Amino acid sequence: MPQNFEDSHGVAHSQVFPNKVIPHRAQKRKSAASKPSGKHGVRLALFEPDIPQNAGALIRLGACMDVGIDIIEPCGFLWSDAALRRAGMDYLDRARVVRYTLWRDFLDSRRGRIILLTTKTTDSYTEFMFVSDDTLLVGRESAGVPVHVHDGVAARLRIPIRSGLRSLNVAQAGAMVLGEALRQTGGFPQ
What we know:
26% of the residues lie in helices and 20% in strands. It is α/β, with parallel strands linked by helices. The protein has one domain: SPOUT methyltransferase, trefoil knot domain (Alpha/beta knot), CATH 3.40.1280. The longest helix is centred in the last third of the chain and has 16 residues. The radius of gyration is 16 Å and the shape is globular. It starts with a strand and ends in a 5-residue tail after the last helix.
């Protein structure tokens, strides 16, 4: 049976996890009990993730840090993939996951800035001022994000790494930058 709730941005959703989370345009519920429990609005978004283990690890991170996770589809794996379950373990049922079938639907649901983690910038995340309604966006492991996504975000940040190496694993990068955003905004769970 679907459970209805409002995300931290007031958008109504029906949740049937792990099979589907379907955004819909139903009237917003007035009950405070339907709202996620997190006191902060920092979110982590995965753009068309390719690797279920990375998605599972980031969903587990979101559950542990009380941070909402947005999945922008299509995924490069079946949502019910056993590898997703193995990486997320029993934390998946405690995560606040919202799935979007289109980039436009994701954009329409956001308040605040979308901050892209990318290798295609010189701006370091360590020099950036995060605010509590930022959404951190990580791209596909195989290809990052398309140009229209890259050009449409509020900021693009990189993690400084040793010269001659390409990039970090997307789950490691997401965890590092999320940790800094939560530190700056006082968003770590108590």
